[in-house]
Amino acid sequence: MFEFTQVTKRYGKTIGLDEFSLAVSEPGIYCLLGKNGAGKTTMMRLLAGHIAATSGTVAADGQLVGRLSMPHSVYYVESTASQFNVRLDELLAYAAKVNPGFDAEFARMMAQRFELDFRRRFRQLSFGMKTMVNTLLALASGKDTLLLDEPVLGFDPVKRRTFYELLSECCAERPKTVLVSTHIIDEIERASEQLLIIDHGQLKLYCSMAEIDEKAYCVVGPASQVVSATDGLNIIGETTAGGFLSRSVFDRRVPQGDGYAITKLGLQDFFIGLVGDKREEF
Amino acid sequence: METNTILGMAKINFRQSKTAYLVSGIVVALFMVSEIITSLILRLDRGEVTTSLSCYVYLLPLLMSILIPAQNFRKLMSLGAKCLDFFKACILNYLCVSAAVSALSMALMLSWDQLIIASGTNTLNLFEVFGFMRGGPLVAFVQMTALLLLLCCALHSLTLAQGRWYGYAVDAAIIAVISVFTPIEPLRNAEIWFFNLIIFHQLAFVQIIACLVVAAAVYLAGLVPLRGKRV
């Protein structure tokens, strides 16, 4: 599908991606997480050919990606992307002209589910609705790789749920690779199959969500017992409150013990543990 | 499939050039009204020569070649277009608009201008000023199309380059050519030679070929700013 090989992207003195390597070969929904400025958007823009790498290579479907060789199988859209100020039905017609595989029927169905008014011009739409239009254009584009940067920005909870339903339907209909970058982590957790975490321009983690379910957990109890139970394991976060200790672990499972409890570690806590501050004290 | 995409993008560019149509339309309409009042109704004596209405329609391709890269580029990219497809679609736009405007201009010269001339005022149109009518209307049409295409390509590439150091360098170079070349004789001769080649050449096919070659070179040079243009 696509591959980054030792890719570095600099913006003057700032580094967007630093010797970044990644190979994705299976279709599915990929959750892309990272702090602000970690390099998520840079990675997506590089893959779409919207920017050029300072060094290293990006390839999609075996073809090198560049500004003048943008991959035809990749669709990238920012949630805040500006569109022609035409009525929504006309905008869909434009999208069909630009994207030969555009699924106009699916786009119309999505627009109805999002309760978008076809007669309204793009600039007349609210912020959330503009995001919906951009997301809708991507999902209906018919491309094999969709890069969605903050696709639910400004959505209300009901619309967010609709989006994730549509995303699953879209992928079930025809397998494709969908990379979703979002900060609303708990919701994407349910829809995605793979997890990518970028930190400081480098790939921090690439694994399946099943692996996270298996290996990421929290051990809570009296400090001494928690310390002995988790000794030698990969501790990604720690919280102490009085004599109690809560340790977030990303490693093999420890057996249930009498003196401590093992609880599920949510994706958001896992992410914070992995890339945030390691220790909190109350 | 790629051809359909390019044609589709060219159609979108035409549909989304409303500002260019509006501005050119207003300018042409205002001039036309002025002509009707002064030359046809009041029959005022405005001297021996007036600018032909056909000159004002040239505004359309010039405006389009600025507005398409300035306004449509990012929006087409947001729709999933590719840079190279945009590049190919634009040349189609410029070729079509140059030919259409050249034909319209010719039609105006052969119809509207004759009305004005009949009212006693002579008109000044670029076909005659540039000597294109020597080979007849058809050759003149091709010559004007080639010249307009060259101007469109130059403006397109210049617009894409704005905001980058080399864009400003080219702007400065153009100003320098106009202001510095003219007073210095050898440089002025080079300037004259160039304009003779692309506009005033005695042989129509040389002028056409020169325009097309320069247009191709200038348009291809536009790939450099296109590569760096922010999407």
Quick description:
Chain A is built from nine helices and 15 strands. Chain A is α/β, with parallel strands linked by helices.
SSE layout and pairings?
The complex is a heterodimer of chains A (282) and B (231).
Chain A: E1 2-11, E2 14-24, E3 28-34, H1 40-48, E4 55-60, E5 63-64, E6 74-78, H2 88-98, H3 104-113, H4 127-139, E7 145-149, H5 157-173, E8 177-181, H6 185-191, E9 194-199, E10 202-208, H7 209-215, E11 216-222, H8 223-229, E12 235-241, E13 244-250, E14 261-264, H9 267-275, E15 279-281
Parallel strand pairs in A: 3-8, 3-9, 6-7, 7-8, 12-15
Antiparallel strand pairs in A: 1-2, 1-4, 4-5, 9-10, 11-13, 11-14, 12-13
Chain B: H1 2-15, H2 18-41, E1 49-51, H3 59-78, H4 83-110, H5 112-118, E2 122-124, H6 126-129, H7 137-161, H8 165-181, H9 185-200, H10 204-221, H11 223-228
Helix pairs in contact in B: 1-4, 2-3, 3-4, 3-7, 4-7, 7-8, 7-10, 9-10
Q: Would you kindly provide a written description of the structure presented here, covering whatever features stand out?
A:
- The complex is a heterodimer of chains A (282) and B (231).
- The longest helix of chain A is centred in the middle third of the chain and has 17 residues, at 157-173.
- Chain A contains nine helices and 15 strands.
- Chain A has 282 residues and is α/β, with parallel strands linked by helices.
- Chain B is mostly helical and 231 residues long.
- Chain B is built from eleven helices and two strands.
- Chain B has helices at 2-15, 18-41, 59-78, 83-110, 112-118, 126-129, 137-161, 165-181, 185-200, 204-221, 223-228, and strands spanning 49-51, 122-124.
- Chain B has a two-stranded parallel ribbon with strand order 1-2.
- The radius of gyration of chain B is 19 Å and the shape is globular.
- Chains A and B meet through strand 6, helix 2 and helix 4 of A and helix 1, helix 3 and helix 11 of B.
